[in-house]
Amino acid sequence: MMNTLDRYLFSQFFRNLILVLLAIIMIYLLVDFFEKIDNFIKAGKTAGMTLRYLLMKIPQITQQIMPVCLLLAAVITLGILNHNRELMALLAGGISMRRVIRPLLTATACLILLGLAVDQWILPSTIGTTNKIWYEEVKKTQSHGIRRNDMIYYRGRTGVYSFRHANQELNIFVDFNYLAWDHEYRLTRLLHANEAHFQDGAWICFDGTDKTPGNDGLYRTKAFTEMTVTLPDDPVAFFIPKYKSNELSISQLIDDLRHDPLNRDTNLRILHGRLSYILLGFPLVLLGLPILLLINRKWGHDLSLAVPVSCIMAFGVWGLWNVGQTMIPAYHLSPALVSWSIHFVTATLGIMLLHRQQN
């Protein structure tokens, strides 16, 4: 059960977190508004749509800035505690520094779990709404394939293509289907292949069936192990835009990883990147708190120096994380190693500094 100290630290932490979140979100929205308002005006969109776009952007903004906000809230909470001599009184009363920091770390962990829940159940719909408004309504970007029930569908010039998985670089499609009809909506072709390759303008289909109408009006089905056909559309238009991957929930990413061997490396990189970013706040807090105490002990400053140092540290770690994510596909590095190594190094350094403060 929580005692008085825990409740006090929790309340101070969440109050500071809300203030930091509101301040940064307002700045973010103002910058985003002035950066994109001309696009909304040129596209002839209403103020209501602009406001809806900005409101729907708030959950995504919150998720993006949460690691830094967790660090700042924890540093401000402990800094005020130290400035008011409350920390000195607690330590003089026999309460260890680890005991003081524990509620802040617990609150951070709880908010990270909440962030995982938001990423799973809230962000897919809100990001989908903002992407549709910005890319389709404002930028007039052509919407290509759509995902429904683990299948990707694309409407071509004379028919509909569908497939379960695809490798965009190799033009390989798993569970490939093509459905065509005439101007009276009568079926003219139903092609299915377990796997299809697009090479030199032609489709090479493996292990499937081809259903077409005969002269007598009856449909005939031809089974094949390998067949080359020409279809009217280029597969470059099939693929879902890259920004659509942000609309996937964590469970959908895991499902794609398990059932899409063609894009395993890409899905693994996206999943590790998503999870590692959400959890980045914990090692930042673990390192930021002992740095605050070190600054106070060495130079006698509390928040006046600790907050700028925390911001520099947070953006430094964030920059290293982004560099690592960029290097994964470029140099074929391990997504798990690159994504989580910065957590290990940051947390280890924080534990070492905290141990020194304790001694």
How are the SSEs placed, and which strands pair?
Elements: H1 4-42, H2 47-83, H3 86-92, H4 97-121, H5 123-138, E1 146-148, E2 151-155, E3 159-163, E4 165-167, E5 172-181, E6 187-199, E7 202-213, E8 219-229, H6 250-259, H7 264-278, H8 281-299, H9 303-331, H10 335-358
Antiparallel strand pairs: 1-2, 2-3, 3-5, 4-5, 5-6, 6-7, 7-8
Output the keywords.
359 residues; alpha+beta; eight-stranded antiparallel beta sheet; 10 helices; 8 strands; 62% helix; 17% strand; elongated
Structure description:
With 359 residues, the protein is α+β, with helices and mostly antiparallel strands. It has two domains: 4-138 and 247-358, no CATH class; 146-240, no CATH class. 62% of the residues lie in helices and 17% in strands. The protein is built from ten helices and eight strands. Strands 1, 2, 3, 4, 5, 6, 7 and 8 form an eight-stranded antiparallel beta sheet that branches. The protein is elongated, with a radius of gyration of 27 Å.
